[in-house]
TrEMBL record:
N-terminal signal peptide: 1-23
Pfam families, A to Z: DUF3078
Keywords from the named record: Signal
Organism: Mucilaginibacter yixingensis
Protein name (database record): DUF3078 family protein
Keyword Signal belongs to the record: yes
InterPro entries recorded: DUF3078
Length: 342
């Protein structure tokens, strides 16, 4: 009985001891797992994942707003206008006892050039008025002309492509004052100057229709397949002094011709302060032969010294079988003042 009770006590004691050991092992395992969780939490606190926290995104709303804007008073001007005025003066004087000899003289020349352009596709208009006049007076002689020309050109065109136009033009050309002949055919001085030309005697009015080639603002080529020219001779007595009488029969004052016409214009600054302007006109009458083709070439070279002072060289070569059987030519060199505006 005593032995059985002792055995039961031993079993109970051993059971309690084993339970105590097991409890200690369980607590230590729990402690280790808590430490691991703490390390993980600490790591997440130090290096949180990107976009770990949810962000609420609000939808973007765009609304139309009317912003008041004051209208600017801008207007496109399709017109271009400019005026060139030039004045040339040449003077020399000698005393009566100047041993080397010489003649006192005074030469004065002026030119006025007005040009206007209108360009709004497909329409194009160009108008030009050119007036030139010059006189020279030598001591002991009457004043004589050195230059005299009045030229008016009006052209309208409609654009066909980038560089080609269909055009119509009207041109008027004459002179201002009376023109005289001072020497005969052999070069001998005449006792009395002969009147050979005057205002609208002759005068030329030319209407032309055709195709125009204009690749840029410097070059212009007109091909007038349908051209008519009227020669006007206001003074019907000039045939007494000039045999050719400008192609008109004696006593007649008007002649009309149909022809093919070519006009080429080149106008450009070829170098700094150096400007070249040339104009060629070829007039080919229908049914009159090659000898009656009229050619005229005008060239002006202007060298600018400063804004006002310039040196200019002008030249004209002309062949018109109705005026002379030979080529006519004129040339001039002058230092003067030129003003261009705007």
């Amino acid at each position: 009985m005593i032995q059985q009770a002792t055995r039961s006590l031993l079993i109970i004691a051993f059971t309690c001891l084993w339970a105590t050991v097991f409890a200690q092992n369980a607590d230590s395992v729990r402690t280790d797992s808590i430490k691991i969780d703490t390390n993980l939490l600490n790591r997440y606190r130090i290096e949180p994942r990107r976009n770990a926290l949810p962000v609420r995104v609000r939808p973007l709303q765009v609304q139309e707003e009317q912003v008041p804007v004051s209208m600017l008073d801008y207007k496109v001007n399709y017109w271009r206008k400019w005026v060139v005025i030039g004045l040339n003066l040449n003077q020399s004087a000698f005393s009566n006892n100047w041993a080397s000899g010489g003649v006192s003289s005074l030469a004065l020349g002026g030119n006025f050039d007005y040009k206007t352009e209108y360009s709004k596709a497909p329409f194009d208009y160009t108008g030009e008025l050119l007036a030139q006049y010059g006189m020279v007076a030598n001591k002991g002689q009457v004043a004589r002309k050195t230059n005299d020309r009045l030229f008016i050109d009006n052209k309208i065109a409609s654009q066909l492509s980038k560089s080609w136009f269909i055009f119509g033009s009207v041109t008027i050309e004459t002179q201002f004052g009376n023109g005289y002949q001072y020497v005969d055919g052999a070069g001998a001085a005449l006792a009395k100057p002969l009147l050979i030309s005057e205002f609208m005697a002759p005068g030329y009015v030319t209407e032309s229709f055709g195709i125009e080639y204009k690749p840029n603002t410097s070059f212009d080529l007109r091909i007038g397949t349908g051209t008519a020219r009227q020669t006007i001779l206001r003074n019907d007595t000039l045939y007494k002094n000039i045999a050719a009488n400008y192609g008109l029969a004696p006593g007649k004052t008007f002649k009309n011709e149909l022809a093919f016409q070519v006009v080429a214009v080149y106008d450009k600054d070829i170098m700094p302060n150096l400007h070249l302007n040339t104009r060629y006109q070829g007039f080919i009458p229908y049914g009159r032969g090659m000898i009656n083709i009229d050619h005229r070439l005008d060239a002006t070279l202007i060298a600018k010294v400063n804004r006002l002072i310039n040196v200019n060289v002008t030249g004209t070569a002309l062949f018109d079988n109705d005026q002379s059987k030979k080529i006519q030519a004129t040339e001039g060199l002058a230092l003067g003042v030129i003003y261009k505006f705007p």
